[in-house]
Amino acid sequence: MAIIGTLVSTTVLAHPNHELSHVRLTTAQWAAAIQSENEDSMNELLAPDFMGMGDDRQNYIATMGKFPITKVVWRYSEYKIKDGMAEVGPIVIYPTRQIKNPVAVKLKMRLIGEDWKIFAIEPGGEVPAELLPKNHPLQSVLKETSFSLRDKDTGEAVAARVHIEDANGVYWPPQFHMNVIPRGWREDIGGDVIIGGKTFAYVQSDFVAGLPAGRYTMEVARGLEYNPMKLSFEVGESGPAKLAVDLSRWTDMKKQGWYSGDSHVHFLDPQTALLEAQGEDLNVINVLASSGGDLITSVNHFTGAPSVHSTGQNIVYIAEETRHDYLGHTTLLDIKKLIYPMGWGEPTTGVPGGYDSPAMADQADKAHANGALVVWAHFPDPGGEIPIDFTLGKIDGAEVAVFGNPFVTTRATGPGPMVTWYRLLNTGSKVPGLGATDKMWNTQKVGGVRTYAKVDGPFSYASWIKAVRDGRTFVTSGPMISLDVDGHAIGDTVALAKRGQLPFTAKVHFNQPVERLEIIVNGKVVASRLNSEGKTAMEITGKADFQASSWIAARAISDTRLPIQGEYNGPDGVPVFAHTSPIYVDIAGKPRTSREDAAHLRDWCGRTVEWARTKAKYPSAAERERIVGLYAQACANYAAQAEGK
To answer: In this predicted model, what pLDDT tens digit does every residue of 212-237 receive, in sequence order?
Structure first.
């Protein structure tokens, strides 16, 4: 809610200044009531004979929510007060978020008893010039300028994300795109995006922009594998112009069998999801049906199969997210039938007074019976049930990189993503990492953090899901990384009869700065190489010593931060990075164990058991006993490992 004005109030009416204060107070109360659609407050403010812009009192109140007023500016108002009558205007209102065209009105009031009541709302004259839209295409004489985007090597028509601005730095959108796009949660999401303060439009290969004569620059970007471009051009007075743009790749991961995906997107309809996936060169985009309170989203697009709004190289799938504010969130990929409930518990994923059952583990079992891949969403928050479901084998993957810097060890909500993933791997879980965005705002770029999965054979949604299930993934915000351990690939298990050493080779190539490449064994850095010469590719080789069953992975890290997650960039920002899923080393068939990490996870389990015993709300004592028993089983697993059993 935005109310812009000056407010002075008092409690008596013995002096003209007091009248002004009360008229201002009534104006402020009206502004608050109309923006909050508060019928009770508005009912108190309007006179019995009210007429407002053609509506009587009853209709005016009843239709407040039909065209929501999102902003009220009354700092320009003049106050005319005489003989118990008052007129206030101009007051500038902004009806609906999307339209954003300001309208000037004036309020007419009369003093009834000791209260000022509004008896009329009328047109208020001209909107002050500084509040009017500026540099809008409809305010200019435009020349239709045609653009054609092609892959430089293949000549193939390609979609992309574009930003066009004039010599004064003013953005000019392509035709059928908004000049100013909404920034609110779930507010007209899709088709345009704000990155680093700049508005970009997602466009197909051939598009038109109406531009006044003048000089322009255009930025063109297409996912992680193409070099971003910035070019200058001029639009003349004579007539239409045409511009051909060739986009060049710096890598082509599909030639190596790697296909990219975003496992966690919200609110996009399938057609818009396809456009954004094409514009970001994203092979798989999972839009999640979900719920919270009375809000249910994307269910109407669910089919249990890839959307018809897919292509051979860009697949849209409407999947599901199950959500509980304390226990956690999971994405159910490749789900064939939606699992109910999608959201439950308090305060936002369900409804106040709702039950805290089922357990996340119960929903995972239902999803697995349905053929789904169960992935812990925006790991590890929230995560009351994380250690439980991982040790019980309920989870198939974890979104280890979504918001901010995944490598921070602690956050306000608890341990960071990577350190938590490492603990679970150290204690025996076999769970690949995924990258996602949880896009819910127009300030988030789909696939800004993404998962690459190594597909065996032809690419399809099913083959991509199988690759993720098999652990053949890496997570990245830009760099492309690989790991080989004695001829074994990411996701493999190397079986050894006894302790020993294994050779490794890790490689990374990139078009954004990377400072170091590291080899991680059981969460510890065992080898590292710095990029002291500013190269665009790095390699590290060596031998790793394995004294017990272990896991090994490679990661590339940069100090450079990316503005790709809008409100969710986090205080430390989203780094340029890449991280492989593990290769597992199995020595003499023994499990991976860590007494220290098991003790940490045992205590985490214990807190969740205590919550279930004392705070959670269940429909019966038997249900509480069942869930506490399920959680206690996981605690026992970690307790035994912590004690070296």
So the answer is: 999 999 999 999 999 999 999 999 98
pLDDT tens-digit series, residues 355-392: 999 999 999 999 999 999 999 999 999 999 999 999 99
Between CA 302 and CA 319 the distance in angstroms is 7
Class of the domain covering 252-476? alpha beta
In the CATH hierarchy, which fold is given to the domain comprising 2-131? Nuclear Transport Factor 2; Chain: A, (3.10.450)
Two structure tokens written together for 193: 């995006």
Which tens digit of pLDDT belongs to each residue from 229-281?
999 999 998 866 899 999 999 999 999 999 999 999 999 999 999 999 999 99
pLDDT: which is higher, 358 or 414: 358
Closest to 314 in 3D by CA, of 345, 286, 351:
286
Sequence-distant (6+) residues with CB within 8 A of 78 are: 88, 89
Joined tokens for residue 324? 């509980």
Note whether 455 and 554 are within 8 A (CB): no
Written as six digits, the tokens of 3 are 């109310």
Q: Domain 478-592: which topology?
A: Immunoglobulin-like (2.60.40)
DSSP letter for each residue of 117-148: EEEEEEE--PPPGGGS--S-GGGS--EEEEEE
- Could you give the percent of the chain with pLDDT greater than 90? 85
CB 566 within 8 A of CB 194: yes
3-state secondary structure of 188: coil
Tens digit of each residue's pLDDT (9 = 90 or more) over 147-164: 999 999 999 999 999 999
Q: Write out pLDDT tens, residues 22-40.
A: 999 999 999 999 999 999 9
Question: What ranges do the domains of the chain cover?
Answer: 2-131, 137-247, 252-476, 478-592, 599-642
pLDDT of residue 9: 30
Chain-centre distance of CA 128, in angstroms?
Answer: 37
Q: What's the CATH code, domain 137-247?
A: 2.60.40.10
Closest CA to 597 of 589, 607, 605: 605
Q: State the Cα–Cα distance between residues 358 and 338, nearest whole angstrom.
A: 15
Farthest CA pair distance, the chain: 100
User: How far is the C-alpha of 314 from the C-alpha of 324, rounded, in Å?
Assistant: 31
Strand partners, 72: 3, 93
* Same fold across 137-247 and 478-592: yes
**452: Cβ–Cβ under 8 A, 6 or more apart, which residues?**
253, 258, 259, 260, 261, 473, 474, 475, 476, 480
Task: List C-alpha distances in Å: 194 to 176, 180, 206.
Answer: 17, 10, 22
The rounded Cα 478 to chain-centroid distance in angstroms is 17
Contacts of 203 (CB under 8 A, 6+ apart): 147, 149, 159, 160, 161, 162, 174, 177, 279
Distance between CA 61 and CA 279 in Å, rounded?
A: 44
